[in-house]
Amino acid sequence: MAPIRMIYLGLAIWGAIHPMYYFVSWFQANSWDLMAMVDAWHVNAATSGLVWDLTIAALALTIWIISEVAVRRNWIALVAIPATFCIGVSCGLPLYLFLRSRPVT
Predict the structure, then answer these.
(1) All residues at 6 or more sequence positions from 103 whose CB lies less than 8 Å from its CB, including other chains
(2) Distance (Å, rounded) from C-alpha 8 to C-alpha 99?
(3) pTM assigned to the model
(4) Could you write out the DSSP letters of every residue in 8-43?
(5) CA neighbours within 13 Å on the CB side: how many for 91?
(6) pLDDT, tens digit, for every residue of 5-63?
């Protein structure tokens, strides 16, 4: 595999594991209440701004993935959409780049 593909894959794995460590730690300390986490995301203007920044980036990435899949017919790349919304943009974007950069057969 091309070295750049391995960098994308490494970033996708890191983007899945590293943020998840903080989410799981938070849930363990604050019970497994998803709404409490959403409230924590909006505790001040700085965190609300970050949430909206990531939400808009996730939506833009989703639109890009769908439009590219419609043209390239690279159906496996659709896996990056649930990765983006269930894990985060830090996983979904490099995962999509990894899947998109595979050699054409």
Answers:
(1) none
(2) 9
(3) 0.88
(4) HHHHHHHHHHHHHHHHHHHHHHSTT-HHHHHHHHTS
(5) 18
(6) 999 999 999 999 999 999 999 999 998 888 998 999 999 999 999 999 999 999 999 99
